[in-house]
Automatic annotation (TrEMBL):
Residues spanning the membrane: 6-28
Taxonomic path: Eukaryota, Sar, Alveolata, Dinophyceae, Peridiniales
Keywords: Membrane, Transmembrane, Transmembrane helix
Superkingdom in the source lineage: Eukaryota
The protein, known as: Uncharacterized protein
Amino acid sequence: RFQMQTAVLFIVSRALRFLALYLQWAIIGRRIYLTEIAFGEVLASRVFRTARRCCALFYACALLYLCGRELWYQCVASSEDMLGDPDQIEQLVAASRGVWDIVVITLIWWVFRRLLAATDCSEARLGPYVEAEAAWARWVLRRLRLFMLVPALANILVRVTAGSVLCAIGEAADVANDVATASAQVFCEVVGFVCLLGMVGTFERGMHKPCDSAALRRCSYSTSQRSQGSGSGLMIDELQCELQTEDAMAKVRELAGRSIQVGALLAFHERLGAGGVMPHYDPWASTTNDVVRQAIIPLSRVPGGGVAYSTMGAAAEVAPVTLVTHAWSNLFVDLVAAVVADALGLKEYGDVADMLAAGEHASLERALQERGVANQACWICCFCVNQHANICGCFAHEPPRGSAAHARWSKTCRDTVTGDVFTCCDCDQSKVFNGNPECELDKFDTMMALLQNEVPGFRHLVAVDRGFEVFGRIWCVAEVAEAHRRSIPQHVQLCSCRELRNDTRNLELYERLTSISVANAEATRPEDKDAILSKIEDVQEFDAQLQVAIVGERGLLGQRFVGFGVWEVAANTARRVKALAKAHQQRHADAAVAPDAAGPPAASKAAAGASVAAVANDA
Ligand SMILES: [Zn+2]
């Protein structure tokens, strides 16, 4: 009976150790396989699987032999002689374990060398945001590599140490021998178990920001910065100095007092279309420019001239909490949707735009009421600037016929739906342009500073159009830059964040957004661009902030990954960075082959947003 117990104990302990070992291999193999899928390239999972199976088969045979022999010896036979030498088998198992450990270390090292090489984008210069993501992925992958390598390394280390210790103390010290072997085994098991927990993501609690990356520090800066308005009188004096005249400051105060409430904006959109204002309004075609020319300008006309639309019927001045930047070439429905979605706390406006186009204003109105944001006041240039004091009666200067600029200009003079040239307003309002204290077009920077100073929680919202043209308009960029310079909290509304998800295979949008630079923005007059760029201290730093504002909250760095998933995300990132670097190199190679090919595609974008200011500037 005693002998039977010994045999069972021996078998159970051996089987358990074998199972634990096999589980560890299985998890390493699975990890490599999943990493392969996320990375999109075959790494070493097949080799690993074959090696694992061979090793497991050998182990199982050895285990069966040892267990069977033990059982036989304890229960049936009285002599060991006929059953072979178990020590030799034990030694063989130990040796094979050593070989296996070396195979594991080699494979893992090779796999991670490829992954880490993919995240190396130091040569490609993919922009600070991508570099920050790559740095994060490297950090995560190195941790995973550590968890995978340490058990094998510990095993080898312990064997070598135990071997040399045994050699030193000699075979005679049986007790020391047993103690050393047992403690070495316990040590290896504990290390293996801890690393196993690490591999399944037990220690990943959303620690996704490595502290040593300067780029990431910049990222966290942009999301943590808050408006620093202190309401000091000194600052207002400074602003007045900047403007030089009291008249101009009075105009800034007047502008800063205008606003349109989210609910009113929704109601305005409801009036557009058949049976209302601008009957040919088509939500999927009509641009903001169309709506300004055919709805806002006619509606804001008063006897003797015109006013800003937002001041009509407004009982009292309500200071805006949100300043909205948008391109005039965007769909008007997208502008409204972006503002409404922002008020509702949504991350993207696509669904709201669909609802607006379907005429579901009532349910949106209800949602705004329920959230208590229907009265939230926004500053939107097309509503808050008196269009009759500048652009209502004419178009921008006509560029030379036949040029690309002329085609763009022509678009801004025609309705998108009907193709008819807009009828100009013939009001008697006197027109004032840049440099005049009464001008409403050249004071947005002072106005933003004033609002930041006087309105608690003042923020800046960029309503990004579907074509991302807003970042190609120098006047929009100027507003973004000003908000950044003054540390006004910035928010971005995109039509859809789907393409920014970490696992997306469509890199086009991601690449476009992460390569946005103010240096590429278009201006009707080069001197406008120079003046705006000269206000930005560090263009690279500004680009990084811009990219983080766009991608940051929605992209990788704004999310928290917990547990198992974090490894996938890192491998995904490695794939993405590699693809971007490859595309980048390809472009460079193409550029080297044809240096005088057509200019950058950005150059062909219309500058409708800028046209308002351009009229003023050129006039
Ligand atoms: Zn007018």
